[in-house]
Amino acid sequence: MRKTLSTLALLVLMAVPPCAVGDEPDEAVVVTSEGLQLMPGSEDIEQVWMKPGVDLSKYRSVYLVEPSVVFKKNWLRDQNRGHPSMRVRPSDMEDIAADIKALFTKVLTEELLAAGYTFSEVRDHDVLIIKPAILKLDVNAPDVQVPNVTDVLTSTAGSMTLYMELYDSVSEELLVKVVDPTADPEAGIGHWQRKVANRAAFERMMKPWAKALVNGFGTF
Predict the structure, then answer these.
(1) Is 130:63 a contact under the CB 8 Å cutoff?
(2) Is 92 helix (H, G, I), strand (E, B) or coil?
(3) What average pLDDT score do residues 25-45 get?
(4) Is 7 exposed, middle or buried (0-12, 13-18, 19+ CB in 10 A)?
């Protein structure tokens, strides 16, 4: 899998803290209490935890759970403090989260279908459950309804962290956890950002994760 799936405070609740096993620190095998082993790092993925010996290539169908979305800590407070003329309401956060969920589902679905995977609502030996989440979501220019304001000047759309869990649908055994933070590259100079531009930027961030997911099914 490519650059895919790291932490925020919520992740500590979702992921079991790892422990080191081995006599020499540089030869230690890092595992979780669930038996997942930390795989060697790469430039594409920050953290991949995988059950030793698992063969993901046998899964040809997936059950995709609706993504969950968690904003960066104090995001609402910081947004309203930094942009008093564009006050963000809790209902605006709900709308943004719904848009991000829909966009991520669309991106994942398109890549999975293009790779030949089918979607299943039943448990079977070749069905993999995918539970994705967007954590630490930071939108620099949220689209809120403010009179006489159509665009916001910013050098980057924002950032987020992908957290994903893969389960066997029959045994419900956790097979893989992936954690990866990403950000819209800094433009160096400010540019006008609004809903359409935000959507395009976040889709660009999501697509490599989706491609890594389908490519990684048989190559971990």
Answers:
(1) yes
(2) helix
(3) 71
(4) middle
